[in-house]
Design brief:
121 residues, alpha/beta, Rossmann fold
Length: 121
């Protein structure tokens, strides 16, 4: 399973999105190995414009697995935030949470946001 971050969904849902990301998302959807998490769903709804986008998001939310954001995920996200701060790196909290969800559930992560490269292993 692969957790698809909002950054990749944005590219996949845009008609002029990055072709490589669009192909990767399409492949995961066709293979049945795409997953969502709560913060990604929230970000998608937050950015939805118009009935067409809302319809696409509704389809995703009702058909894909959404992995839970359990208390241990929050602990991991907090630890990642502390480590990033100690390294002098600022990573958005939402991205830290996505990384923590993927790590906790043993999922691959598809993203296209430079912040993810700054998160310590």
């Amino acid at each position: 399973m692969t957790l698809i971050d909002t950054s990749a969904w944005i590219e996949a849902l845009r008609s002029d999105g990055d072709p490589g990301v669009r192909r990767a998302v399409a492949h995961l959807l066709e293979a049945g190995t795409a997953a969502l998490c709560d913060i990604v769903v929230l970000e998608l709804w937050h950015g939805a414009r118009g009935a067409r986008e809302r319809s696409k998001i509704e389809r995703l939310v009702t058909t894909l697995d959404t992995v839970p954001t359990v208390p241990e995920v929050w602990e991991t996200a907090n630890t990642l935030a502390r480590h990033c701060r100690e390294m002098g790196v600022t990573v958005p909290a939402t991205d830290l949470l996505v990384v923590a969800v993927a790590r906790h559930h043993g999922l691959a992560l598809l993203e296209c946001d430079h912040h993810f490269a700054m998160v310590p292993a």
